[in-house]
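Review session, final week

We close the course with one last complete record, chosen because it touches almost every idea we covered. It is PiggyBac transposable element-derived protein domain-containing protein, a protein from Rotaria socialis with 138 residues. Go through it on your own first, then we will talk.
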Amino acid sequence: MSFILYTGKPDKQEHGFCTNIVLDLCATVPRAINHKVYCDNYFTTIRLQVELEKLGIYTVGTVRPNRLTDLTMKNKKELSSKGRGAMDHRIAEVDGVTLCVTRWYDNNVVNCLSTLHGCESLDSVKRWSSQPKNVYIL
C-alpha cells in the first residue's frame, strides 16, 4: 500500500497538483498489463488519464464539469427534462489517447471520464424511488 503525506505545496508542478499525486502513487504499478485505477472527482483530470494511458494503465473516474473544457454536452436542464437515466456522451482524442466522457442524470448530473470503458454498453437496472409505486427502469 502506498500513500503520500501532504507537506505543503510542492516545488515541482509538472501536470498539476492532483495529477502529480496520482502519478506518484502509480509509480510502482507495473506497466501495460491491464491495471486499472479508479478516482473520484477530486483527482480525475484529462491530463491524468492521458498520462496513465501512456503508461499502459487504464483509468475511470467521476469528473468535475469544469475539467471538461471545450466539450459541448447536454446541460443539467436538458437531461433533467428527460428524467432519470437520460445521458449524453462524447469520444475525444487527446495526445493520441481516446477518452470517453459520459454525462447522465440520476438525482443530479454525474460526469464520468474513462480510458477503460466505452460509451455504448448500456444495461437496464431497477431503481427504487420513495414516491409511491414508482420503480424507474434506467
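Two points worth writing down before the exam:
The beta strands are 35-39, 57-62, 87-94, 97-105, 109-114, 126-128, 135-137.
The chain has one domain: 17-137.
Good luck, everyone.
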